[in-house]
Design goal:
The protein is of the alpha+beta class and 270 residues long. The chain has seven helices and 14 strands. The strands form four sheets. The protein has a five-stranded antiparallel beta sheet with strand order 7-6-5-8-14. It has a five-stranded antiparallel beta sheet with strand order 9-13-10-11-12. Strands 1-2 form a two-stranded antiparallel sheet. A hairpin with a 7-residue loop joins strand 3 and strand 4.
Length: 270
């Protein structure tokens, strides 16, 4: 690919306010405060930043609870029948955040001039920095979001022939700002995976990833099974030694990694 077709290198980052282990002053919540200040209404502010009314109030409750004084107050009366406004404390926090964010963006622009490498390498580095206790971590792109009455089904393309399907609440989709085309991470515990054989009857589990057993590590009680589901993806399952013996699993044997969509946790990198 010629340099003329290569998009310019960019770095992106955000300022977060933390209280203990809780990130309460994140960019989306600061955008919500700014929108409330501009529109004078929580519902209008939520629409402006593409957030549900309930998710907006949940965010406001979190910020109010963690602050030593309220940040958002309801107002009554007026031509519109009431609305919302920021307290002086909220305006101070918002101004501080905007100043820090502007300085942070100048710093990021300065780093971008170093041209440290390709976008693919940076995406890989970002993924590697995510820490989780889940044995299986996959990075991909959201290809489809199907909303239901309560839960949503999210399809994540991890670059193979088989996507990973996650079932999460509609509220989570909204609060995380999930959109089709967005990059995301899927986390799955090894203990949540059932190992099956291609000859077995079909199961109701939403995810049934076919592959080949790459390795087997036997223990006193359990065995760890590594199933290669594509050239660059391997999924790990923990099963009992009794199950290993019953299935007569061997390295090189075709197998299926089976798990429920509700067992998949999603995280975002944007």
């Amino acid at each position: 690919m010629s340099s003329e077709n290569t998009p310019p290198f960019e770095l992106a980052g955000s300022i977060w306010f933390r209280s203990g282990k809780l990130n309460w002053g994140n960019p989306r919540r600061m955008a919500l405060l700014a929108a409330i200040h501009e529109h004078g209404s929580i519902s209008a502010a939520a629409r402006h930043i593409d957030l549900s009314y309930k998710a907006a109030w949940d965010a406001i409750d979190t910020m109010n609870n963690l602050s030593d004084e309220p940040l958002v107050l309801r107002t009554t009366g007026g031509q519109r029948g009431g609305g919302a406004c920021l307290t002086p404390k909220a305006l101070e926090i918002l101004e501080l955040y905007q100043q820090l964010d502007a300085a942070h963006q100048r710093f990021m622009n300065h780093l971008a001039k170093a041209q440290p490498g390709s976008d693919k390498n940076l995406e890989l580095l970002q993924t590697m920095m995510v820490q989780t206790s889940a044995r299986n971590n996959f990075a991909g792109k959201i290809t489809k979001i199907t909303l239901g009455a309560v839960n949503a089904e999210v399809a994540l393309d991890i670059g193979g022939t088989q996507p990973i399907i996650a079932s999460i609440t509609n509220e989570s989709v909204d609060s995380m700002g999930l959109k089709e085309g967005m990059r995301a991470l899927a986390f799955l515990k090894a203990s949540s995976i059932i190992v099956g054989l291609p000859s077995e009857s079909k199961l109701s589990a939403r995810n049934q990833l076919q592959g080949t057993i790459a390795y087997i590590e036997s223990g006193a009680v359990n065995a760890e099974i590594g199933i290669e589901i594509s050239e660059k993806h391997r999924i790990t399952a923990i099963i009992t030694m009794q199950s290993l013996e019953n299935l007569k699993l061997k390295v090189g044997q075709p197998a299926i990694a089976i798990f429920k969509a509700s067992s998949v946790l999603l995280g975002t990198m944007e």
